Amino acid sequence: MTDSRLNTLKNWLKALQANWQLDLDTLAPASADASFRRYFRIQSQNPKFGTLIIMDAPPQHEPLDAFIRVDLLLSEAGLNVPKILEQNASEGFLLLNDLGNQTYLAALNDQTANALYQNATHALIQMQLASKPNILPNYDEALLQRELDLFPDWYLKAHLQIELTDIQKQQLKDAFALIIENNLAQAKVYVHRDYHSRNLMVTAENNPGVLDFQDAVYGPITYDAASLWRDAYISWPEERVIDWVIKFWEQGRKAGLPMPDDFGQLYRDFEWMGLQRHLKVLGIFARLFHRDGKDGYLKDIPLVLEYAIATANRYIELKPLARILEFTRTTQK
């Protein structure tokens, strides 16, 4: 963040100081994410809050409209999302209540996982039950394809300097077509799009707190489940993942979500959706390094690649993709 932007933020907070009893000297970085957004935490003497969060989203890079719209949508659905206390959309600042600083990633272990994931499953189903068409952007073929193209453009070419043969290019194109066909055939619901352990906060009430939802779309019902249980930042034995996905399927059907009658079909959809996501994520992690100078995600590439290889190997029609992925593993940087 530039000093000028920090000064603008401090001037805005000064104007809010009396209303929210802010202690301006306590302003400190809370976290940063993979975009241009930054977060700060500040102490408040207001008895309801204690601490508050400020989101800094430069309008030219991260307009606040989508965040505000989705925040209200998810709040109405009963999810524990940040409450917007003050907004300055023109300069790109929000004052939010604080959902704490313990992420799911920090709290998850063998003992806590079942309870935490049960809460996350409940919140996910609540969000999906609220779904209506024509409210959020469609997760359509063009968007799915653009995301998949990040894999050859950024992971293969920019990161690994791999040039595919004409045969491999065709194999990749064919695999992408199969993946997109599966994704588009799934029932459509609201999709958070980053519903994973770094964006879920452990909260005392209405756990989890849900963050980073501004890119939400209307799309495949298994997408957020794949984000949650094929998480780029933490992995689990396959039998535990299957057990959690079964619970999601059972509870979702009971609640009236448009789930397949056969769990095998749901799990296949979950796997193929996860594969689309992992190919995209490989491209994004490479792009964050090469374009944005952020190297913190490079260490997460091997797990994402392993997920993708394992899934592609389980389906005969995706074997050519598995070979390409396995080849990239030998040229890791």
Automatic annotation (TrEMBL):
InterPro entries: Aminoglycoside_PTrfase, Kinase-like_dom_sf
Superkingdom per UniProt: Bacteria
Domain Aminoglycoside phosphotransferase: 27-244
A Pfam family this chain is assigned to: APH
Listed GO MF terms: ATP binding; transferase activity
Keyword annotations from UniProtKB, A to Z: ATP-binding, Nucleotide-binding, Transferase
Full protein name: Aminoglycoside phosphotransferase
Organism: Polynucleobacter tropicus
